Amino acid sequence: MVDTVYLRMRKNVDLTDMKLLKLNDIAYISAPSALKSHLLETDIYRMTEKDQNTVVIDGFMVIDHLNEIFSDAEFQMVGPNEAIIRVHKQRKRTPIVIVAFIWLLLFIGTAMTIMNFHYDVSMQEVQQKLHYIITGEKKEYPLWLQIPYSIGLGVGMLLFFNHWFKKRFNEEPSPLEVEIFNYQQSLDQYAVQHENKLHD
Predict the structure, then answer these.
(1) Total-model pTM
(2) Is 149 helix (H, G, I), strand (E, B) or coil?
């Protein structure tokens, strides 16, 4: 009797070093228990330095490889057809001086952007006119409007990006996270089209 094995490739696999990839590392399988343990420990691909940090393993080539070893099983592919393997080598910690410099640079750049935007739209004049409409008095610095506006600007940015350090305000992804996800999808598609794939 031929056993049917269902194979679903893992979309992304992150490694910290080069290693011998087994089927368990790159795919999920559904198979009879007696066969499953042998399948999961089957060697599939040896990562080497020539692979650099990305390699794409094609599911059909995996099935061909498994058919040579397990001739009494029938393999069915479901889900993604490729597994993208990425090696993330451990990096040294960034010195605190560099972190502080980058933070200061971003802080100044953000402040300049906000101030230039407010200058372009004449925000101070708008607040002065709003103060005059409400109170009937002319005032150069209507602080009762400007201070809450400044606080609201910061709170609004926090809510927009949905993060306070590692804390999230709700489960919805922020616009930045959506853009990063779309960028990652494009990278995956590029890798599938251009990186080396598993060969016999």
Answers:
(1) 0.62
(2) helix
